[in-house]
Design goal:
By secondary structure, the chain is of the alpha/beta class. The chain is built from eleven helices and 15 strands. α3 runs parallel beside α11. The longest helix has 21 residues.
Length: about 350
């Protein structure tokens, strides 16, 4: 398979380049073949253009190349069996057709590591099933508790929402989230409903979660295999009694967890800014990796204001924006290398 043009050995390591020049299928493939002799680990990727731009940054590609890792773009219009060979397939394509392609391919090539299995990713494409695994966890560590906000799922008929909310015993205000997570910006559009009359204005299918005051800070817990990194993001401000008495209707919430909302260097109250305890995160990560069958995901977590021993998981995302995570290129390439070493040891032992 042809490879996209790569940089020569004598180029500056900190050079700024278009990621497309460092990955696959450009006319400069011959140059890459000459420059990169016998790559130790070949990673095929099937990603959206947006994900390629945010994830396959030059700093990642340069470091990967130094470690003997090469990324090759998968052409979804061609049979996967005619491409490669691959050691690892990295993907974030949600179509049923692609899922079947991967499953068929893995039956014939079980030695290839799929990141991650499509049937496991499906759990995170629906906000109801997404949090079911968390609700079943029993995580108490050093007096900290992890749970999910109380919620109700509405499939259709907006007029039924007030009754469903009352029957579920939920307390206003409520955060409204689209039920399906399909990678589009619409699936991340959140709203805050302040009063019962406005609930019937919402657009099912959706999930309604009780709003939990959390000091306006959200913790994004990035997981790459066994590695864990946490960053702080500014979130939705707390809701007080005045807000409840004076606000009515539906309020569109901004994208609160993007990199531009970083709170890592802000002057915050220590009780709000303190990161969740490491032992708790390690236990949570280990449990969710096992239950979900995933190795690439992140958790959006908040700590209840005034209740430092209670954390809420409000979202889980597959293959999140790792490019926004400081030092992601080192963590991710180390992870890929560990997968390659495990595969090599297994092949040497005949397993």
């Amino acid at each position: 398979m042809r490879l996209r043009g790569d940089v020569s050995d004598d180029e500056e390591e900190d050079a700024v380049m278009d990621p497309a020049l460092l990955s696959s299928s450009s006319p400069n493939g011959a140059a890459v073949a000459a420059a990169v002799a016998s790559p130790r680990l070949v990673v095929g990727y099937a990603l959206t253009k947006k994900k390629v731009k945010s994830f396959l940054q030059p700093k990642l590609l340069l470091l990967a190349r130094k470690k003997g890792i090469i990324f090759i773009s998968i052409d979804e219009t061609r049979p996967l069996s005619e491409q490669g060979p691959f050691d690892i397939i990295l993907h974030k394509v949600t179509s049923k057709e692609w899922q079947q392609v991967l499953e068929d391919y893995h039956e014939v090539h079980p030695q290839v590591t799929i990141l991650d299995p499509p049937n496991a990713i499906e759990h995170l494409n629906n906000r109801q099933s997404m949090l079911e695994e968390v609700a079943d966890l029993s995580l108490s560590s050093f007096y900290e508790e992890v749970c999910t906000p109380r919620q109700v799922v509405i499939m259709k008929d907006p007029s039924s929402i007030p009754t469903a909310v009352a029957m579920a015993g939920l307390t206003l205000p409520l955060v409204a989230k689209p039920l399906v997570v399909d990678g589009t910006s619409k699936s991340h559009e959140l709203s805050l409903a302040y009063d019962e009359a406005s609930l019937s204005m919402l657009d099912p299918p959706l999930v309604l979660q009780e709003f939990v005051n959390h000091g306006g800070i959200l913790f994004k817990v990035y997981i790459i295999g066994e590695a864990i990194q946490v960053v702080r993001r500014f979130s939705v401000p707390d809701v007080n009694t005045y807000d409840l008495l004076n606000n009515v209707g539906i309020y569109r919430l901004p994208r609160v967890s993007c990199a531009a909302a970083s709170a890592d260097h802000a002057d915050l109250d220590p009780s709000i800014a303190e990161l969740p305890p490491r032992p708790l995160l390690e236990k949570l990560s280990r449990e969710l990796r096992g239950r979900l069958g995933l190795r690439l995901f992140n958790i959006d977590m908040i700590r209840e204001l005034g209740g430092n021993d209670r954390y809420y998981i409000i979202d889980i995302n597959y293959f999140p924006g790792y490019g926004k995570m400081p030092g992601y290129e080192h963590i991710f390439t180390d992870f890929l290398q560990s997968l390659g070493q495990h595969k090599y040891k297994r092949s040497m032992s005949g397993g």
